[in-house]
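Entry 0007
Protein: WD40 repeat-containing protein, putative
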Amino acid sequence: MTSPLSVQGAGAGAAPGALVAANGQQSSDQVQMISRRFVFGVRQDVKDGLHYMDDSTCVWAAGKSIVVYNTQLGTQKFVACTESCEAITAMAVSSNRRNLAVAESGESPCICIYAYDPQGGSTKFRRKRVLQVPGDIGSREYVSLCFSLDGRYLVSQGGFPDWSVVYWNVEKSKALVTTSVVDKGASSQDRRLISQCSISPKDQNLVCVSGNGIFKFFRFSEGQLKPAPGGMKGDPMNYLAHLWLPPEDRMIVSTDNGDLLLIENGEYKYPLPLSPSDGLSIDALIAHSKGFVCGGDMGLVTIFERSEDKELYRKMRTLKVEAERRDADGLASNEESAKVLAFSLTPPPSEEYLGLLTSNKQLYTLNLSNADFTKADERVCEAVCQPFHAGPVTGLDVCIRKPLIATCGKDRKIMLWNYQTNAVECAKTFATEILSVAIHPSGLHLLVGFPDKLRFMNLYGDDIREFKNFGIRSCSECRFSNGGQYFAAMHSTIIHVYFTYTCELIGHLRGHNGKVKNIQFVAPDDTRLVSVGNDGAVHEFSLTDFHKVNDHVIKAITYNAVAADANTIWAAGNDRKLRQFERAHLQQQMEYDMSNAALQCLAISSRMKLLIGGCEDGSVRVFNTFMGEKAVQDKDAAKERLDITIENHTAHTGAVTRIALTFDESLIATVGDDGVMTLWDVVAPHRPPKKDFEFTHEILIDKRDLEDRTKAILDLQAQVQELKQRMEHQQIKRERKHEEQMSKLEVEFKEEKARQMSQLDKLLADKNEQAIKFTEHRSEMEDRHRLDLTKIDQDYSAKILALKEQETKLKSAIDEQRSDFETEMRARQDAAGDAAMRESDEHRRQLRALDDNYSGLLDKKGSEEERASELQKLIESETDVEIIGLKENYEKRRKEQEEEMAALQATNSSQLSKENLSKADLDAKKADIAEKLKQQASLDMQIEGFKRDIDALNNELKERSETILDKDKRIYDLKKKNQELEKFKFVLDYKIRELKSQIDPRDEEIRQARSKYGEMEGEAERYLHNNEALVLQIRGLKLKIDGQVKELENLGGKLQTADEFQSRLWTELSDLHDEKNPRRLKDMVKVLYTKHTSTTTTVAPPGATKTLGSRTPEDAQREYNRERDYLERTVSGLKRKLVKDSETNRSDRTRIIGENVVLIKEINELRREVKTLNASRKNLDVTALAASAEQESKRELDIQRAEMVRLRGRIEQLERQLHAVGRPVSIATPALV
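Output (structure tokens):
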């Protein structure tokens, strides 16, 4: 038996740093049964859980292993963790991409350092050393890691509750210092208090730690980590990430509200002006050569670049990481955006790809060099490897005729994987959680269990569509038979069996007292089905008569999984034991203790005699079933404790939920609560030769889709043909047009060539003339230059002679002064000698005076000599300066002449170009002159028109002047009339007062009519309320009808129950009829009597049975018909009453509205008459008004009285109508005036 510690890829079982290759090669001499091939999934809660080691290799954590993925070849290799590893919590890579640090949690957390060799072939990673603190760091995990710039030192941040930071010397594998980040005495229950630790790229002794309300610097000195100055100011915030920017000695710190804070030299400055600050957290930061990238909530990724302005960094682009999916209706939509947790860049200088790790367990890559960020609709992010499940995987099944694996999970997604190409064939997301999935052996159908129903679905290429659903709720286990003709689904304690091709229920399998946990069709004929449940029972059912064949019950346990072959059944329970049963009588033969983990799922290989199980601790175990069968035959061995475990592989971090074996038993697939699916190759040495099995390539397609696609193809072909004809026609037209253009261009070219040749000849003649002139001018300039040079040489020689004469004179003067000085010195020395001989004292005094004088003379001599030398130097320098100046002037004049010659040449060329330009300008001016002439002609025509307009305006002016005179005369006449009208003002005021006295009664009548109109409106509202009450009564009657219909349905259900009871009773009596043995017949009758008369039975009591039996279906039908007739008559009567009331209400309302309209019209006519009277008062002719004012007013009064009488008669008529219908009259009829 192979120990779990000696198996490659088995977590702690691999040698230190062993690399588990995808091709299944062994790392030791032990025989291996299975080897990991490919992993689909990632562990998202690992700090910095994604890293690019080079341009084509990236690593991430999946389960308890590190996945090494080649992005170019699409292959994977695996690095196993240590034996004590519980989970991977953090990762870090050195700046030179040669060392990878992996933090493992456990009782004694450790950090593994792996050396990366790009040229290492199949073993690119080698475990270099393991870093572990000798004592206790006060935590079970490390939450963050970071290398120094040179890779010699490493800082690690411990977790809850002590939050200790450890500073490591990587080369010596030694912890230099350990200290707690939180203050002594402070306690916090926040398990995410610290989020990141890092080492400064400029100073490897400076450490930064950030977290929720914590941002501190520590400096390593004298063997201790001491707090360093600097940090944040103001109120503490939740600092999620920080980033060092080495060239400027700056730091960027992100917070949970979207702020990016700037730190310079350890001191807080200010938030970046372009930071998002939108309330969305920023959880990840990474630096690149031009700036940095930040990402966080809602999948937002923002790219910043350095700028020279005061903002320091400018925002280049913000994009959203999102994945397209198809919902249950087949429409494309976007998944809920996840949070970006980690970044990784390919090594410099390329920095071509940016990797992203999101909180929904997905890996994306962004091509920074080729992506066009200006297009908002372009999907610039692509999945690394393949899309993964975002939550625990709950269902798994393998197809036979196609290389497909179907999975479902709590992320509401179904995914189909091709295990040959390691790619996702199809993925679809649904609105509700998915509990189970099974794929048909043909690969054309799916069986999916939802909380509300079981759905039978068809696979149409890249889409999944529902075909039929069944009313089975919370189906957590469903399975197709090996041949595909049946499928079974569990519903609580019952297993429903259907015929696949008609979806017809063919039987129920009963016998479990608890929920069914696992079912399996027994190969090869699918006539038997094995199931286990929460009741501790193992049942074997026959699918020919749908009865239980054998069972075995242990009530103290709950079974999780079952597997069966031709002779043996294997069952695993929650008591961490594996039990072996004989299929013939379902008796337990052996029991194997798993000790440290319970098996959650099983798969059996009949040909290789292997049993593969998934455990609750995430491990995959391989058992030897041959040894178990052999132990049953050997009774002595059966008495001993036997271990049939061959090997143990650590695959998942959570429990292994499902396991499946392909039809040819060459591949194993496992899924777990961590959302990871792992593929294993069966590499057992005794495996049979691989069968030549060819997979099918057929797919289903809906007839409507096929017709639509055929129609689209035909339409496209017609369009292509039409486009071809159109393009050919256009090509012919273009060719003809091009030929015409070519002939025209050839003629134009010949004309232009002739014109250009004539211009060229003219220009050559002009050039020759200018060359002759230039030659003459050049000779003149050279003669002039030669004369000037000779003159300058003569002047220079004369100046040199004069300077030399001046120098000779100065030297002779100096010699004369020197001789005079020496003569004077000798005379004074003689006088001094005579004086010394006379008196010694006087001699000493004079000697001293002479010495002083001598020293002064020496000083004077030195100064004179210095003056002479300075004067000489000055003269020489002046002569040198003058000579240099002359040379410079000469050189300057020579350069000026050369420049003048170059300018003349440039002038010559410019003159030629100007001539060309002048010719072009001349042509343009000629065209302009022609255009001006046209404009002048049009202006002349406009001037003529304006002259005609002026004459017309003058005539109009004369006419208006005459009109003004007429108006003035009329105004004078009107003023006179106005004076006359003033005389009759008193008379008009009197008439107005009389008319007002007549209008007031009319207004009173109008108010009374309005009050009547209001009452009529109230009456109409009462009719509406009555109508609504009738509608409510109708609704109540409808509800009563619905209640009676439901009651009838309940009665029908009771009748059906009674019929079922009667059929069961007849079936049991028929069984008694076939029995020939009287004794056995008596016993069976007793059992039947006990069953139907016992108080514990679920069948109705005998009295109820008799009542049900005496009531015939015809009586129930007659009762139903009688109730239905009564309800129909009631409804028809209510409808007739409703129609009658509605008609009455509508007619009354129409009549009242018509009367109101008539009254309103009459009121408006009266108002118009009043306005007419008021207006006529102003327009009355003075003479006519004086004669007939009194007569007109009397006539108006008579008309108004007659109108009032007519209105009163109308009102009385309306009141009589109201009395006729029984309505009260609230307003009394006013008396006649």
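Curator remark: The radius of gyration is 57 Å. The CA atoms of residues 567 and 584 lie 7 Å apart.
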